[in-house]
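As described in the Methods, two query proteins were run sequentially through the folding procedure within a single session, without resetting any intermediate state between them. The first query and its resulting structure tokens are shown here.
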Amino acid sequence: NSIVSTPGARCLTADLKDFYLNTPMKEFEYMCIPISIIPDSIMKEYNLEPLIHCDNVFIKIRKGMYGLPQAGKLANDRLTAFLAPHGYAPIPITPGLWKHADSDLMFTLVVDDFGVRFTRKEDADHLMATLAKLYTVSEDWTGAKYCGLTINWDYTNRTVDISIPGYIK
């Protein structure tokens, strides 16, 4: 069964808020920030002056953050471990493609964007409810927005048009 051509299949898209930013780290990282690049308003708001050492502020990174090389892997490993007991697993030979063990629900995962294909709404509801236990999830049951693309599904004719309106003026 391919994702697009399964008879009766429907699609939804979802996005996880702060997918990288909420990922706890087992091993913390540390960063040195020169005070010359920290605005005075931030220095004052967070009372950073007592923390200055050799014209720097040293910080401990406890959760994933943008720019941290391992943030994507940590977030993906956490998601994989979280979804496994609920029957969801990545398909080993196709990176980014996942399947549920007891249904035909499949989804693609690109960073924090889900493209979900399902035939039974209960299956999609299960995935969304499961994700909502750990993440803040936004859902689009029309499946019209995914990874910055606009997707127009024609379920009757089993076709799809993908575009980026306004990308080229």
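Immediately afterward, the second query was submitted; its sequence and tokens are:
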Amino acid sequence: MAAKTGDGIRLLYDSAYLTARAFDVLFDPGRATKAMINTAMQANMKAAHGNESQLLPVPGSFLINTDGQIIWRHFDHNYKSRSTVTAILDAI
């Protein structure tokens, strides 16, 4: 991805889900959701993720200070519940 875009952004490939687990944003979507994603949406989660788990991350927002500490976070297993700009600015 970095080579394709040439933008110099550091990308993380978390094939073992270590970072997602550390941030507590990993979940198993369940059999029905996996079937919908793999069939109705014509995705192949096993191939895309490079393993058999088919786990998904929860969308999250994190504020991390210069010492590397998480000072604010928002995530919800309901992927439609996202942090608002107001909430983020208030936390800053």
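The radius of gyration is 16 Å. We note this only descriptively and draw no conclusion about the first query from it.
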